[in-house]
Design brief:
Four copies of one chain form a homotetramer.
Chain A (H helix, E strand, L loop, with lengths): L3 E10 L4 H11 L2 E10 L5 E10 L4 H15 L6 E6 L4 E7 L4 H12 L4 E8 L5 H4 L6 E3 L7 H14 L4 E4 L8 H7 L3 E5 L11 H8 L3 E8 L9 E8 L6 H24 L3 E4 L2 E4 L2
Helix pairs in contact in A: 3-8
Chain lengths: 287, 287, 287, 287
Amino acid sequence: MAESNAILLISCIDRPGIIARVAGHLYQLGCNIITSDQHSDAEDGHFFWRIHFESLKLPIAELARELDASVPSLLPWEHLHWRLYDGARRDRVVIMVSRLAHCMMDLLSRHWFGEFDGDIAGVISNHRNLETLAQPFGVPFQVIEVSKANKAAAEQALLERLEALNADTVVLARYMQVLSGDFLQAWSKPIVNIHHSFLPAFAGSRPYKQAHDRGVKLIGATAHYVTEELDAGPIIAQDTIAISHRDTVADLTRKGRDLEVAVLARAVRAHLNKQVLTHNNRTIVFE
Amino acid sequence: MAESNAILLISCIDRPGIIARVAGHLYQLGCNIITSDQHSDAEDGHFFWRIHFESLKLPIAELARELDASVPSLLPWEHLHWRLYDGARRDRVVIMVSRLAHCMMDLLSRHWFGEFDGDIAGVISNHRNLETLAQPFGVPFQVIEVSKANKAAAEQALLERLEALNADTVVLARYMQVLSGDFLQAWSKPIVNIHHSFLPAFAGSRPYKQAHDRGVKLIGATAHYVTEELDAGPIIAQDTIAISHRDTVADLTRKGRDLEVAVLARAVRAHLNKQVLTHNNRTIVFE
Amino acid sequence: MAESNAILLISCIDRPGIIARVAGHLYQLGCNIITSDQHSDAEDGHFFWRIHFESLKLPIAELARELDASVPSLLPWEHLHWRLYDGARRDRVVIMVSRLAHCMMDLLSRHWFGEFDGDIAGVISNHRNLETLAQPFGVPFQVIEVSKANKAAAEQALLERLEALNADTVVLARYMQVLSGDFLQAWSKPIVNIHHSFLPAFAGSRPYKQAHDRGVKLIGATAHYVTEELDAGPIIAQDTIAISHRDTVADLTRKGRDLEVAVLARAVRAHLNKQVLTHNNRTIVFE
Amino acid sequence: MAESNAILLISCIDRPGIIARVAGHLYQLGCNIITSDQHSDAEDGHFFWRIHFESLKLPIAELARELDASVPSLLPWEHLHWRLYDGARRDRVVIMVSRLAHCMMDLLSRHWFGEFDGDIAGVISNHRNLETLAQPFGVPFQVIEVSKANKAAAEQALLERLEALNADTVVLARYMQVLSGDFLQAWSKPIVNIHHSFLPAFAGSRPYKQAHDRGVKLIGATAHYVTEELDAGPIIAQDTIAISHRDTVADLTRKGRDLEVAVLARAVRAHLNKQVLTHNNRTIVFE
C-alpha cells in the first residue's frame, strides 16, 4: 500500500459542486486532503484550486492514470486545465547569473539549508567570476559567453545545456542579457526573473538610477515570469524598502540587494511548491 | 427560493474524508462554496475549517435545522464543535473606552466607511470627554463611572447596558479598567482588547515607558481576547513599528497610536468576519 | 530676556566652514542648538541644513533682524537660501476634500490629539456630505462647488477663501479636482497632495484599478507637493502594503485608505515641522 | 599635505556651545565636516555626537595628538568621553558560529560584496561542518571545541586566537555557547550577538518554540552587545516578521533565518561605521 504526497492544480469556469465532486472522488480513491486553497476570479468567473493530499491507497502513478480518465468527466466545463504533481519528484532548477553574486549565493545557500522543494541542477553564467563562490555547494558552474556577434549561438548552447541538465525551471538571478523571443519559444518552460524595481515603475535598465532621479522614497524589487515583452510578465512577488535623500545610487544598490534576494527567494519557493497559477498575465499565489 | 450567505465553522479531530463529506452534503443541499479555509494542528491532530457559502435552495434558518440534525452524524468524531452564522445577521459591537480617543474614533470611522461586517451598537466610557467626538456617528454614548468603591455596581450597570444594547461582542478600545473575573463569567461573550505592547513583552501598565527603559528598537501592539489572566488571552493580531534613540516616551505614545488603531481594527474585522477560531489559548485566523 | 525656539533652514553651495561659522555665530547670539540635521548632495555640491535651537537672549523677532544682516556675509556663496521660522508661530492649514472622509477625518483627529505643529484653519469641499463628520472638531467647513462650467469662478472663490482663512498650506486630502496652473501661480504657497499609488507607477485616474489590472503584489500611496505637471511634483513620503490575488478593486480601496492616511499624515507632519526642503524636484526630509 | 577621513565620537553633559566650540576648532585645524549627528538625552542631560570629517591639512595621527591636548579644555564638562577613529584603519572582525550556516554565510557574503567598513579576520566555530562553505571567502576557519569539561581551557584558546587574529570585534553569528563572565572581562572589547527573538520576550533557549507556544503573530530577532547578564545587553537592532497559525516551529526557524541575517548585518554595519554609542544599557544608533 503506497503512501505518498501529490499536488493537484485545477482551473476551470466556476460552477457549484466542484469541491464536492473532486473532494468526494479523491476520498473514494483513498486520498486525504492536507491543504486546500481556492480562488474565484470575480471578473471572469474562473476558479482556481490547489490541493495538497496524501494518497493512502494508490501509488501516485496509478492515481495519475485514474485522474486522467476521471477528471474531465467530473468537471465537464469550459477552460478546464489541471495537472498532478508527484510529491516525490523534485523540480530541477538552473540558475543563470552574470557578475553579481548576491542572488546566486542566496539561492545556493537556501538550497543548502533545505528550504526549497527542488534541486539546483546547475549554474550558467556569461562570466567566470562567480565560479569559486559556487564551488562549495557542489553544483556545476558553466560559462556561456554572450556577445552581440554570438547571441544566437550562445542561446543555442544555453538551450542544449538546459536540456543536458534536465532543467524544469530557469531562474534569472541578475542575468544581464535579454533572452530572445526565439529562445523563449524553444525553451517553453518557466523562467523566473528578478527585476530591481517595483514594476511597472522603472522598467528597463538602471532602475536604481531612475529611482534616484525621480526622488522616490522607496525602492522595490519584482520577481516575475519572463514573457516576450520585457519586464511585463506575470508578477509573482514584490516588495519595497524605505530610502531617504541620504541614499546615493550606490546605497540604493546595496539596500536593493537585500530586497532582490528576499523577493526572488520567495518567488522561487512558491514556484517550486506549485503554489503559483497564472491567468491573464496575473498570478494566483497560494502561499 | 431563498438565496443567501452563511459561514460554517467546524473543528474536530482530523480524519480523512471530512471535506468530502461536508462539501458533498452542502452540495446536495444546494449550497455553493465561495471560500474555504482549513488548518490542521500538527501537534494535537485537530482540524479547523471555515466555509463561506451561498444557499441556493434553502433559507438559512431551514438549512440550520437540517445541519443540526446531519452534522453530528457526518462527523462522528471527538471534539466536534461547529456553528453556522447567518450572513444576514450582523453582529452588534459595543466599544468601551476611557479618555483616549484614537481607537474609538478609528472604529467609528471604519464602521462609517462600511468596513465592518457588523454594527456598532453603542459606546460606553468611564469618562464623558469623548462624547462630542462620537456624536456624528449616531451611536449612543453612555458614561458608567468606575471607582474602587463602586466597581461591583459599575460592572453590574455595564452588564445591564450590554444586555440592553443586545451586544454580541465588546471591544476594549483603550479602556483603562481591568474587568473582574466575575464580570467575565457573567458576560461570557467575546471581548477583544488592544494592549500597547508586543505581548508577552511589557505586559501590565505603562508599556511604552517599559519599552523606552529597556531600549528596544521597536514598539508593538497586540489585540487579544480577554481572559481572566491579564494580557494573557489568545492573540488575534500584532504588529510593530521601528523606533530610535530619538523617541521619547511621548513619541512612542504618538507612534503607538497608529499601531494600536491598525492592530485593533484588523482584529475586530477578522472577528466580525468569523475568521477567528481559538484553540489552546492560540488563535487560527483565516484572513 | 526672551526664551524661545526657532528653526533655521539653510541651503547653499557646500564649502568648508559653514557649520563652524553659523554655529559659532548662533552661540555668540546666545542660541543653544537642540537638533541639527544636514545633507550634502553628492551630485551638484549643494548643502542643506536644518537647525532647531532656542534663543536664550534675544526675542526671535530681534534675532531675525540680526540674521537678516549677518547670514549673507557669513555664507557669501552661490545659491544661498535661508529662512528662519519662529517656533511660536503655528502654520495654518486648510484641508480640501471631496466625498471620501478618511483623510480628512484622520487629519482632524490627529490635530485634535495634538500631533501637528500647526492648526487646521478650515475644510473646503466641493460636496456637502462630510460636513457633519467635521463638526465636532470645531473647524469651519465650506462648500465650493466645482463644475466644468464654473471652474474659473470656483478657483477664484477658493483663492478668496484661502486668503480669508489666512492659510499657509493647503492639503489635498483626496480632493478629486485638478487645480489649474493659473490657480497654482496665484496661490503660490505649498500644496500637499496624496495620490493613491506608488508614483511614478499608476499616475492619473483610478490607480487601484490600474494596479489590479497589472497584477501587482503591493499597492502604494504617495504624498507630494503639487506642481503644474500632474502627479509629478517632489515626493515627500511613500509607502506600500502587500496585496494578493484575493483582493478585488474594492479591497484595494479599503486597504489603500489606511496607507493614504498614514502617508499623508507623515508628510503633513514633516512639512509643518519644517523638515522638508525641495531641490531639483526631489525632497530632503529631515525626520 | 595629507587628505584623509576620520570619525569623532563625543559624549558629555549637554551645555550650550558644544557644537560651536568643536566645529570652530575643527575648522581652524583644516577639517571639513561631512556628516554630523547628535542626540541629547532628555532625561539625564547627556549629549552624544558623531562627526565624520575630512582633514584637509593635518595627517590623522597628528590631528589625534592635537585633539588629545585640546578637547578636554574645549569641553570642560562632566562625563566627557571622546574617541577619534582613523578612517584609514579598518576594524578586524572575528565571526563565531556553531552548526548553523546562515549568519556566517551572510556576513562573509556582505564582506565579499564590500558592504562593511571593516575586515573579517577569521571564523571560529565549535564544530567543523561549516568549514567548506567558508573556504571561498579566503578567511581562516578554526575549530575550538567546547564541552562542559573543557570550557575554561576552550575560552583560553579562544582568547589567544582572538589576540592572534588582532581582533577588534567579535560577532556571535548563532554561536550556541554562553561566554563566561571571566572571558568577557578578559576580552573586554565589543561582542555583538544575534538572539532569535524580539527581546525582552523569549529570552533564553528555544525562542521559536516559546513563540509558537504562546501563539504570537510575529517573530523577531535582536542584535545586542553581550554583557554578563544573558540576553540583556544594549540592543543595537531589532525587527519582526508576521507569522500565522499555519507556521510550525520549523517554519518559524526558516522565516527567522532571514530576520536574524538582516538584523545582525544591520548591527554589524552600524558598529563598524562607528554609528553606535551606548548609554545606560541602551544604544544611540546614528544610521
